[in-house]
Design goal:
Elements lengths: L1 H30 L3 H26 L3 H26 L2 E2 L2 H22 L4 E2 L1 H21 L17 H31 L5 H26 L3 H26 L2 E2 L4 H22 L5 E2 L1 H19 L1
Helix pairs in contact: 1-2, 1-6, 1-7, 2-3, 2-6, 2-7, 2-8, 3-7, 3-8, 3-9, 3-10, 4-5, 4-8, 4-9, 5-8, 6-7, 7-8, 9-10
């Protein structure tokens, strides 16, 4: 039954990613908004919904390590696994606004999270309010000032859909991503508990990979359809959203207290390291491009992280 949940969940996620992409492209054409902004708002929010649901429910049920481990592990997976697979499929060309705005905001959010939990091991309500307030400011800036951060290719089906279809695809895609993730997580956790794996390890590996599957589905479908701006923007936006919204909202509802110190002595440093690495990879070996070479580096790093967790 657990294996069936995983297979069905993956299938629903792929369908959901396709529907969500249709909605994102439709909205960007209708509103004449740069696709990178659509990727970092509409798509990021929908694909990060599983992290939000899992983290809030985990924290309320008293599983704070699962809530925090889910976000930290998802942020590592988004860059080390999802971005790696995406650029192994197709090279992404990056413009200046990526390292002037998008990447710095992701790093500031990551460092803020580190500062809030590294010393006392607790993410409290006022810290959650600060995180969520930063998200509101960032979104306002995006919608007001952001320019495309990726050199865009013309999509294969670059036509404007009726508004009702955009909304329908957005709703159906979001529900499919959420439902598919629930099935996938239930199946994965069901298998993991048989091996008596700790709550923290389950959070940063199986659950985080499960909740990152929507990002993988949306990004791979986007890259195959030549919507590279949505693909890159989705991943950066999801990492920002995971910290500022998921942990922000979770800690506003209930304090998130770290029990397993491995989250503070190891996992969060992996998250900071992988996030930091993306910038130099944009400049080397080929300036302003992410290609299969960088993809191999990222996926090897992620493999090392998973090996360390399960070894």
């Amino acid at each position: 039954m657990n294996l069936l949940f995983i297979v069905v969940g993956l299938g629903i996620l792929i369908l959901g990613g396709n529907w969500l992409l249709k909605a994102a492209v439709g909205f960007s054409l209708r509103l004449e908004i740069p696709k990178i902004v659509i990727g970092m708002t509409v798509v990021s929010f929908a694909t990060s919904a599983p992290e939000l649901i899992v983290s809030v429910k985990s924290a309320l049920d008293g599983y704070a390590d699962l809530a925090l481990g889910n976000v930290i592990g998802s942020n590592i997976a988004n860059l080390g696994l999802v971005l790696a697979i995406t650029i192994l499929i197709s090279t992404i060309s990056v413009e200046k606004s990526f390292y002037k705005t998008d990447w710095p905001v992701m790093m500031v959010a990551s460092l803020m999270l580190y500062g809030f939990i590294a010393f006392d091991g607790v993410l409290v309500r006022y810290e959650g309010i600060i995180l969520f307030s930063m998200l509101v400011v960032f979104l306002f800036y995006l919608l007001k000032f952001q320019k495309p951060a990726v050199v865009e290719d013309l999509p294969d089906d670059n036509e404007e859909l009726p508004l009702y279809k955009n909304i329908l695809f957005l709703i159906i895609g979001g529900i499919a991503l959420w439902g598919g993730s629930e099935l996938l997580i239930d199946g994965a956790v069901g298998l993991a508990t048989k091996f008596n794996v700790s709550e923290r390890v389950i959070g940063v590996t199986i659950v985080s990979i499960g909740t990152s599957i929507p990002e993988l589905a949306a990004s791979v479908i986007a890259i195959l359809k030549k919507e590279k701006a949505i693909s890159l923007g989705n991943l950066i936006g999801s990492n920002v959203f995971n910290i500022l919204a998921v942990l922000g909202i979770t800690s506003i509802i209930t304090p998130v207290s770290v029990k397993d110190q491995g989250l503070l002595t190891s996992d969060i440093y992996w998250m900071l390291g992988v996030s930091l690495l993306v910038l130099p990879l944009v400049f080397a070996p080929v300036k302003m491009k992410l290609s299969w070479k960088e993809g191999l580096i990222l996926i090897a790093l992620y493999g090392g992280f998973i090996y360390k967790m399960v070894a």
